[in-house]
Description:
This protein is mainly beta. It has helices at about 15-25, 90-95, and strands at about 1-5, 30, 50, 65-70, 75, 100-105, 110-115, 120-125, 140-145, 150-155, 160-170. The strands form 2 sheets. It has a 6-stranded mixed sheet with strand order 3-2-1-9-10-11, with no helix packed on it. The longest helix has 11 residues, at about 15-25. The mean pLDDT is about 95.
Amino acid sequence: xxxxxxxxxxxxxxxxxxxxxxxxxxxxxxxxxxxxxxxxxxxxxxxxxxxxxxxxxxxxxxxxxxxxxxxxxxxxxxxxxxxxxxxxxxxxxxxxxxxxxxxxxxxxxxxxxxxxxxxxxxxxxxxxxxxxxxxxxxxxxxxxxxxxxxxxxxxxxxxxxxxxxxxxxxxxxxxxx
Length: 177
């Protein structure tokens, strides 16, 4: 099963509309990791599961959430409340006791997929204002594909094209479960 992960549009509502239209019915869940600068009652958030980012001022967004289905358990947060811009350690200590497979964040605008403390951490980067070595892609999001044995993370550009060389496969045996 596939899950879309996107973050940090910073007012670029049009790209969220395009993503929802493109992936509706193709993925199980669409996660939005904060900094939309939209209202929590925006129509898009009937489809996207959002959390509040540091520039989301609508207090109706949750700060975080834990999502579970028969295939995966995911903890979702923007990252600013854990100061992920300076490091991941505080977030690591908070999620260590959680019974989740995957932790998804945003905030830094830099894509990342790695196993830490037996959990897969995914940052989709920013779809609108990317930073870091992949900023030249002009925006990214991720698709998490889940099978009984593997978790795959593929990064895509704003035009829905997979980024060659930015697909990562992780063995479920490496996770805490």
